[in-house]
Specification:
The complex is a heterodimer of chains A (312) and B (371). Chain A is of the alpha/beta class and 312 residues long. In chain A, 36% of the residues lie in helices and 27% in strands. A 6-stranded mixed β-sheet of chain A has the order 5-6-7-3-8-9, sandwiched between helices. Chain A has a 4-stranded antiparallel β-sheet with strand order 11-12-10-13, sandwiched between helices. Chain A starts with a helix and ends with a helix. With 371 residues, chain B is α/β, with parallel strands linked by helices. Helix content of chain B is 64%, strand content 8%. The chains are: A alpha/beta (312), B alpha/beta (371).
């Protein structure tokens, strides 16, 4: 089923090719390319300092790329500014102004002066009861909502959200994601940076970057294959420093990850599971049966990041 | 714990090399500049004269005034021209020698020489009164005694002629009139530079600028939106301060309130946009404050508000003419105290307007729509 809006809005996509940006000697973004279709939620995944913020700022036109091309809906970013909304990572609304004054201000920057529409938006983002409260006194979660509502007041076709749910409780995060899906269903394109796996899994499309380089791209499902031929085993085992030390010496192991009382091990597919079991039982003094499991996005994230570090 | 805080503060300072440079370089520059520029002794003070006597004796007086380098004399046509030239700012002093000067001198009748001084410059007026002595010094007067080799000198008066000094425009030498008009400009400069000096850099530090930059706003719209409210506030402040000057200190009224408003408007735009420019060049609010202060201090000292421009050596005087406040002082003294004609203030109005235009244009040019 095609949403009626989709037929009237021209196909808007984000397209970037070979973006690079340097700060001094440091190449922060190296040859980043992306094509995002209309109505898609694109996730830019990566650890801290991977170049996510620089990338999103370049796409929004507030940082000049050293090289590369950006096209927003087929036009230059300077022309397309009216069609994009952006929420920076750090709270960027005016602390001295109330919620309502902030919203009015940002709406007016785009020529939107329809108070009834803005009032509806406030209700939609559960900000009504804080309408006359100064933005600086809001809690982190509501500040995020305010940032978002200010960015969508002019009904942009594309939303750029830099870590929109960082430091947000799970309930608020879910509410925000419901809103993202709603926007996506209405034909809006969303570009989201994150380092949360749970969040990345919600995206339609993903690119994984680490230290400026794109190391994997695809859907949450296909990106798991980017590690190549690996097996993941898990076992119920509380944290034991001896076990971790013993496993760290095995070259074939790509990742040792402790999740509470679960130990997850990612290893070359060719590496015999018996050898792993042997290595663990020799430390704790009893046999441990390893069960084969699917690599999740978190495994991929950590493995890709750590792998990059040891290679770099 | 004190040591930890101290260390942290020093580290933070070290991480802001621009601020460190400001702290070291600016005082050094200003010290050198003031050391060279700030003198109490004026030189080459322009003096309009009318010598209706045209005798060897009147020439002696003029030469006496020329010779110590204090005055730079030029001739005008009428006695009224002397006063008008001082009012217009073309001259700071004037002298009138009447046609009967040598005749009276010959008869030992002590002729009077009129001496005029611009009373709007405090130290200049005092210094000039003192320096007019160059005209009555012994070198001049010695040659004025009519001596006969066979007879004793016929000297009736101790001095052959008398110098009458008139302090123009501020005859009572009311002290508030000297400084108060200019002080209004100083206060306004402070308010303007500090109000707008932080306005952009604050948005940068608080990350609100980033959100503004993604909007389609044009550079001009951003700068104008930043300027205009502060221009209005500063204008209101100008009249508030001046109003207090009128009520409490009995400052005179200007000949034209339109001209006064014009001055206020141009000056305020120049100062507010200068503040904005500071903000655009600073990376932190601290830096902006420092730059503002380093503009305010030389503005006060080199503008002619306290020390006469004539006392600043020619080699560095051009700096005075690069200070917008110099023109404000010239105009407001002209308007409130000297009742100067608009045509004679035109050049100063034009200069001040140029600063306003340049500062606004530079702000727009400097503002980047990227982080």
């Amino acid at each position: 089923m095609v949403h009626p809006v989709l037929e009237t809005v021209p196909p808007v996509t984000v397209e970037a090719s070979s973006l690079s940006r340097r700060y001094g000697d440091r190449l922060v973004v190296d040859d980043f390319s992306v094509v995002i279709e209309r109505g898609r939620i694109f996730g830019l995944l990566g650890p801290n300092a991977a170049g996510k913020t620089t990338t999103i700022r370049m796409l929004c036109g507030i940082i000049e790329p050293d090289a590369g091309e950006i096209s927003i809906g087929g036009t230059d970013i300077a022309v397309a500014k009216r069609r994009i909304g952006y929420v920076a990572q750090r709270f960027g609304q005016y602390e001295e102004l109330t919620v309502w004054e902030n919203l009015r201000f940002y709406a007016e920057m785009y020529g939107v002066k329809d108070d009834a529409l803005l009032q509806n938006l406030l209700a939609r983002y559960s900000l009504e009861r804080f309408r006359d409260q100064r933005a600086g006194t809001l809690s982190g979660g509501y500040q995020r909502r305010l940032g978002l509502v200010c960015a969508v007041a002019h009904d942009p076709d594309i939303l750029f959200l830099d870590e929109p749910t960082a430091g947000i409780d799970p309930v608020t995060r879910k509410l925000l994601w419901d809103e993202f899906y709603e926007l996506s269903a209405r034909g809006k394109t969303l570009f989201i940076t994150t380092h949360y796996m749970e969040e990345a899994q919600r995206c339609h499309q993903l690119a994984f970057i680490d230290r400026g380089k794109t190391v994997a791209r695809g859907t949450p499902l296909t990106i798991r294959d980017s590690l190549g031929k690996v097996s993941v085993y898990s076992v119920e085992l509380s944290f034991d420093p001896g076990v971790h030390r013993a496993l760290r010496d095995v070259n074939a192991i790509m990742l040792i990850n402790q999740f509470g009382s679960e130990l997850r091990i990612m290893v070359d597919e060719d590496y015999p599971v018996a050898w792993l079991e042997e290595a663990i039982s020799s430390v704790i003094g009893k046999a441990v049966p390893l069960t084969r499991s699917e690599p999740n996005l978190e495994d991929v994230f950590i493995a890709l990041t750590l792998h990059g570090e040891s290679a770099g | 714990m004190i040591a930890a805080i101290m260390k942290k503060e020093l580290l933070q300072l070290k991480r802001d090399p621009r601020l460190a440079a400001l702290i070291v370089v600016m005082p050094l520059l200003l010290l050198l500049l003031f050391g060279v520029a700030l003198k109490l002794e004026p030189s080459n003070v322009r003096m309009a004269y009318l010598d209706e006597d045209q005798s060897i004796f009147s020439n002696l007086i003029k030469t006496g005034l020329w010779s110590d380098g204090y005055f730079q004399l030029y001739e005008v046509e009428t006695r009224q021209d002397i006063v008008e030239d001082i009012r217009a700012g073309r001259a700071r002093a004037g002298m009138h020698i009447a046609a009967d000067f040598s005749a009276l001198l010959a008869e030992n009748q002590q002729p009077h020489v009129e001496f005029f001084v611009d009373g709007t410059m405090p130290s200049l007026a005092t210094a000039m009164k003192y320096h007019s002595a160059g005209a009555t010094g012994e070198g001049v007067t010695n040659d004025m005694y009519f001596s006969d080799a066979d007879a004793p000198n016929v000297v009736i008066a101790e001095e052959p002629f008398i110098m009458d000094t008139t302090i123009l425009f501020n005859p009572l030498e009311i002290e508030t009139w000297y400084f108060l008009p200019g002080i209004i400009g100083v206060l306004l400069m402070q308010i303007a530079l500090i109000l707008t000096g932080i306005t952009v850099v604050r948005e940068r530090e608080k990350h609100t600028l980033e959100q503004i930059l993604v909007t389609p706003i044009s550079k001009t719209a951003f700068i104008m939106g930043k300027l205009l409210p502060y221009v209005l506030i500063a204008l209101i402040d100008f009249y508030f301060i001046l109003g207090v000057g009128w009520v409490v200190f009995d400052l005179p009224q200007p000949p034209s309130h339109v001209l006064l408003f014009l001055l206020a408007a141009i000056y305020v735009v120049a100062m507010i946009s200068l503040g904005l420019l500071i903000s655009l060049f600073s990376q932190t609010q601290q830096q902006a404050m420092f730059i503002a202060i380093f503009i305010i201090i030389p503005s006060i000292l080199l503008s002619g508000l306290i020390f006469p421009l004539e006392a600043i050596p020619q080699s560095v005087r051009y700096i005075s003419y690069l200070i917008p406040f110099t023109y404000f002082v010239e105009i407001i003294r002209g308007l409130l105290i000297k009742q100067t004609q608009f045509v004679d203030l035109l050049a100063s109005y034009a200069a001040l307007s140029c600063f306003a235009v340049v500062f606004v244009a530079a702000s727009i040019a400097r503002f980047r729509k990227t982080l």
